[in-house]
Amino acid sequence: MLYPCARNDANTSRKMDDRMSAHARKATNVTKPAEPRRFVFLLLDRFTMLSFAGAIEPLRIANRVAEETLYAWKLAGESGDTAICSNGTAFKLDMGLDEVTREDTVLVCGGIDVQRATSRGIIGWLRREARRGATIGGLCTGAYALAKAGLLDGRRATIHWENQDGFLEEFEDVKLTKSVFVIDGNRLTSAGGTASIDMMLKIIAQDHGEDLANTVADQLIYSAIRTDQDTQRLSIPTRIGVRHPKLSQVIQMMESNIEDPMSPADLAEEVGMSTRQLERLFRRYLNRSPKRYYMELRLSKARNLLMQTDMSVINVALACGFASPSHFSKCYRAHYNTTPYRERGTQGGGTGVRLSI
């Protein structure tokens, strides 16, 4: 771990101002750049507020704690004077894309309908900035814009776990991880939500030391700083609300074998149980059979692929372990009360508009 988690200390009875002043004094001991590091937040249409705020607030607090302008930032957009986030709030833009300099760190803020928001103009601009050697990152689904521009080819990157299936299908040259954030050279990606906080704390620690990063985390009441080694999702026991080692092991195997589903007998054998014991285990804790639970996992992935990619229904069916489109359609309709073809139709003909959180 790069730096220790910020923790509540029973001995910290000092006043907040005294604590901040102490850290500010420590900050004066580190070498600072002549000019503040500047970030440009490129706000795509309907970007998510949480990931954006999680990136900008640590910078503000770092300046406050250090009692010095370590960081500066501007809001930019492709056109117009404002950008609208996914909850409908409007943000006034500070600059156009033509005003961004090579020294700026660009963070693309994505959200709902990121494919539509990632215009040809945005893609071309990102490629030009990359050729100039700019540091460029993506917050939330902003990673999609970077990948579409080819900026993540051969690089490690991340995106929200819900969007990983579709992303993998479209961008095979990206080394996608399940980390909360990834910093690969001059490419930065965070998975969305609070992962932006973790990435910015890492940047602050790299720029100005661990003490300042921990103090910023303390101000944010962020008690456990995650690193790029931490994964996004809650553990299986936490997700299902059941702590049973064999049940978790079987679910893990199911999640890892969607395209080629394992039989209940094989699953049971892997954990040293009979098929009947496995059946009772699932019904006791999850109120459904192993077969039904497995089917729901496969259909969930299928729905993501239908809504996030332009894969044909046949290929979606095969990717989720269905032998034929007809069987896939029958199972899909029974679970979602609609057909895969209608689902695809409601999503704009397979444009993948659900690439968001």
Automatic annotation (TrEMBL):
Segments of this protein annotated with the region Disordered: 1-29
Biased amino acid composition, Basic and acidic residues: 12-21
PROSITE patterns the record matches: HTH_ARAC_FAMILY_1, HTH_ARAC_FAMILY_2
Stated name of the protein: Transcriptional regulator, AraC family
Keywords tagged on the record: DNA-binding, Transcription, Transcription regulation
Residue ranges constituting the HTH araC/xylS-type domain according to the UniProt record: 248-346
Top-level taxon in the UniProt lineage: Bacteria
SUPFAM superfamilies noted in UniProt: Class I glutamine amidotransferase-like, Homeodomain-like
Gene Ontology MF terms: DNA-binding transcription factor activity; sequence-specific DNA binding
